[in-house]
TrEMBL record:
Pfam families: TACO1_YebC_N, Transcrip_reg. One of its GO terms (biological process) is regulation of DNA-templated transcription. This is Probable transcriptional regulatory protein FJSC11DRAFT_4006. It is found in: Cytoplasm. The lineage of its organism: Bacteria, Bacillati, Cyanobacteriota, Cyanophyceae, Nostocales. Belongs to the TACO1 family. The keyword DNA-binding applies. SUPFAM superfamilies: YebC-like (SSF75625). Its main location: cytoplasm. It comes from Fischerella thermalis JSC-11.
Amino acid sequence: MAGHSKWANIKRQKAVVDAKKGKTFTQLSRAIIIAARNGIPDPAGNFQLRTAIEKAKAAGIPNENIERAIAKGAGTFTGDGSSLEAIRYEGYGPGGVAILIEALTDNRNRTAADLRAAFSKNGGNLGETGCVSWMFDQKGVCIVEGVEDEEKLLEASLEGGAESYEMTDEKTAEVFTEVANLENLNQTLKEKNFQVTDAELRWIPSNNVEIDNIEQARSLLKLIDTLEGLDDVQNVTANFEMPENLMVVMA
């Protein structure tokens, strides 16, 4: 998971910059809508919704926007008639890299057309459902910062039902678990006084494609950046590894 975690770190750093853009506000609001629709519209009893709200607040989204998004998800908001649905798209990027795209859209045809254009202009191909998803497993991930004692983290992780963990830098760890156990792991780590800064669902590749050619790397990252820039796209995951020096240059 090491290569994927390095890329995840770079994506988080990029997200800090992106948080200043309206797109991130839209993404976070849509995540709240879907979370409220998939469960009860009460964050106290809906972990997915509670997590989405925490991320929205951290990004500076006003409370009235958050409440409006919850109402839309619950079906109690009458301000517009748009209906969002969650769709997963799949394709291949330069070098045969497998790419998963999670989207929220009110128009499937528009989203598919935008994705197809992004792939074709950047050396990739939008594929059929199932063409690459078999190479990924969805996991729950807790991001833990300020880790002083790795042994205590291991003990707490095991108690919380974690499958594995990885130190991504000197004091930051990613702890992995089954999707259904994410809330329990998150709560256990917090009860053990660990600083959990994020709890999310993430697609983890079972195999990775090594990208060490600078032109291929440039095309791949341009494709990912283009996909992430589309209004309907919530998240992009790819199964590549890249030498750290090349990744730093590209980032």
